[in-house]
Write a structure and sequence with these properties.
Blueprint (H helix, E strand, L loop, with lengths): L1 H15 L3 E2 L4 H13 L7 E8 L2 E6 L4 E6 L5 E5 L1
Antiparallel strand pairs: 1-2, 2-3, 3-4, 4-5
Helix pairs in contact: 1-2
Length: 82
């Protein structure tokens, strides 16, 4: 399960570039939404995401929740509510 989450985040990192993710990139937004949901956090729909660095994102949800999604130094995917 953790490996699948890591792969999802890594995919977003590789294809995300340094730009803002938008509705034109639905697979990346879905990957972030899935990662947040798999960590047990509420997010009805990711409407905005910003890449901060390799495997490091800030995701904003339609319901107003914001999350920092990143891979820590041990390789674990972490989702922290902002």
């Amino acid at each position: 399960m953790a490996r699948r989450i890591f792969i999802l985040v890594l995919t977003v990192a590789v294809f995300g570039g340094a730009r803002l993710l938008s509705a034109e990139e639905p697979s990346m937004v879905r990957d972030l939404a899935a990662t947040i949901a798999l960590q047990g956090m509420p997010c009805d729909k990711v409407v905005d995401a910003k890449r901060n660095g390799d495997s490091d994102y800030i995701a904003s949800c339609k319901d107003g929740n914001r999350y920092h999604v990143f891979v820590d130094s041990t390789g674990r995917v972490v989702v922290k509510k902002l």
